[in-house]
């Protein structure tokens, strides 16, 4: 089977794509969200980047210690992440933003690691580079569309609307994990 066709039939590829696309509005607008504080933009950006790097490290450690592997835990983590995104988008204050941003990035990294790991396990070594390159290209294309849309929504309706505009992409992984859990329960 052709690598492209095989890739598009892999459900974990699609879930990873949806999670990454769903988080684009947060990724694109977190700096704007933190800039409303009394500190300078440089320090806000520095603090956000420290949080991102720390969260990435923590997410990696969590992925090694606690498996999400298509379980109720994964569903819970996705839902908690969406709630954190909503809270981050609609609250004010630098420290509140940082406190909400840290667990959001940790949970998002944990979710991405789970889907990425599942995708790694389902493809052969000689297909891996092509599959993940295709994944990155599709996310980049989504960002080309999502970026201006988030900016327009932010300018027209406010930062909260802009930051939450892509969260609906998380609905499909949530529904998928609920369906998977129900299917697994019926099998038992």
UniProtKB/TrEMBL annotation:
The keyword Membrane applies. Keywords: Membrane, Transmembrane, Transmembrane helix. It comes from the Bacteria. The chain crosses the membrane at residues 12-30, 42-60, 72-92, 98-119, 131-154, 160-179. This is Major facilitator superfamily (MFS) profile domain-containing protein. It comes from Alloscardovia omnicolens F0580.
